[in-house]
Amino acid sequence: MKKLLLFVAAVMLLGSAAAQSLPKNIVGVRAGANFSSLDFELLGAFDFRTNFNAGVSYERLLLKNLPLYLETGLHYSNKGFKYSDFYDYEDDYEYEDSYGTRISLSYIEVPVMLNYKFFIGNDIALYPSAGVYYAFGVAGNAVETFNGEKLGEPSDVFGEDGLLRRSDFGYRVGISASWRNFVLSAGYEGSILNVAQPFIEDFGIISLKAKNLNIFVTLGYNLNF
Predict the structure, then answer these.
(1) Residue 59, Cα to own-chain centre: how many angstroms?
(2) Residues 6+ apart with CB under 8 A from 10
(3) Share of the chain above pLDDT 70, in %
(4) Which of 35, 85, 138, 222 fits 215 for a cystine, CB–CB 3.0-4.6 Å?
(5) Is 186 exposed, middle or buried (0-12, 13-18, 19+ CB in 10 A)?
């Protein structure tokens, strides 16, 4: 146990020494891929859909002697999910029909996180991060398909009678590796708030719970000040 504590202390001291040579402010650009879904109460998680994200990030050194940073930014994050039903008529007609729905959700997202940098040499750093995010839905649509072909016009997911609320708040964790000015990050985020909007049926108001799920991978470039 003592050896483990000494090792952790040594790593933190190395990080502290390296942090003294780093700028207090780091501004970066980010772009990458999202692998997202929606976990609906009673229905479970739908199929994951591949989307994209892009934005800017900002890190501020919080402590003079430790490489602890406050990390935030402004991101455009496209999420969503897909759902398919297959009807097999092989016994009678020897073919299969596929009905599906594709949901596309576009958010403006602001993360607020803490990260701690562990340095390997002068140019390489590894740092975990954890915190929360707030996202506001700026566009969202649902497209129904039959055998891969679109049926009708897209419907508004965030509208007055839509499926989802515009506001989303949740947790976000990740791990990043930087080499000089380049950064590769991966992480996971999930809703804390219920993003489902109540809807009216013939027998009353139905209120279910739904949460966004998202795995992200980004590549970025930092400018230090």
Answers:
(1) 18
(2) none
(3) 77
(4) 35
(5) middle
